[in-house]
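1st attempt posting a full record on here, be nice pls
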Amino acid sequence: MEQEIADLKKELKQKDSTIRYLKNVNTELERQLKSQPAKIHNERGAGRKSKITSEMIAEIKALRQKNLSFSQIAKVCSQSSGVTISKSSVYKIIMK
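the predicted structure (as tokens):
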């Protein structure tokens, strides 16, 4: 019986040692992951290109500051830029 207890204690120490080692490895991997620069979404530039320029985004945000509705902003921007913008697109731009 005492031999079994001693064997179990020895096994427990080995398991604790393994757990400590794995925690250290995990910590090191997390540190390496954090030090890497974040990947850019769609880094190869695939997909549809946006027709909305940064100037249009600035205009949309300025119009929203003047308390225009999303549909009013969409109309104004569509008329001034020649690019049709939906009110849902205006909403998405403002909420970014």
